[in-house]
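User: Quick sanity check before I run a bigger batch. Here is a single chain. Can you write out its predicted 3D structure?
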Amino acid sequence: MALETDEEDLSSPKLLPGMRAVKIVTWNVAGFRAVLKKGFKDYVEKEQPDVLCLQETKISEKMVPKKELPSGYECITFYECCDTPGRHGTALFSREKPIEVRCGLGDEMLDKEGRIITAEYESFYVICTYVPNSSEGLVHWAYRKRWDEAFLEYMKALDAKKPVIWCGDLNVAHRWIDVYKPSAHVNKTPGFLYGERDDFSKLLSCGFVDSYAHYYPGRRGMFTFWSYRGGGRAKNNGWRLDYFVVSERVLNRVLAIWRRPSVMGSDHCPLGILFSIAP
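Assistant: Done. Predicted structure follows.
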């Protein structure tokens, strides 16, 4: 069973002799330029993830200040927002050079905002995503629905080749306990709509597992996002919007799961897993 590490202790569980593992971290940084000024490099160099997935980077690769980046990464990919500069965007840092890195879903309409990067490794895929928000008034619900449908087919196609580790800001609080005050938000607030939650349930029914919810099904208050308004983080009035979803057949290879709510710099906190690799 996966172990949740001490949230204030950046060390990882000890591995058994001969065991290899990869540490993967996902974080919605709410602006890469901004988080650079708030301890990003220090956090990454302390955490030492093998793969780092970022969302809402809001920056093009050519604008990234290279001297400010953490060291030791063989591959760094920023997927910029094509149609809306200064918004959206994802990035992936990898210590090991992936077999291939792909940006986008292959759908022209859905690939205008830099929302997905896929890195292929020898025995698994890592998918970093910033899932579209349905937005207030549900003005982007149709777009979100198209994304959910296209992404499910994408996941199934990759999973048919090798296991998938999908992470990022998924913009959905799936369970009732994933929102600090669910009755005030159910089917009213984007991220907690029946349609969004149903689409996530459908994806999970196709051979994928929400790893945190699986290992800690009744644990409450384990949020990854807090609004700046009203001191949400200090009161732990938050949402669980960030996930690691893995192919069901490799769930037992998730050795540890953790959040870093004490790491500031964004309205989201980092979320990580330790994933076993066969020796």
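The radius of gyration is 17 Å.

User: Great, the batch can go ahead then.
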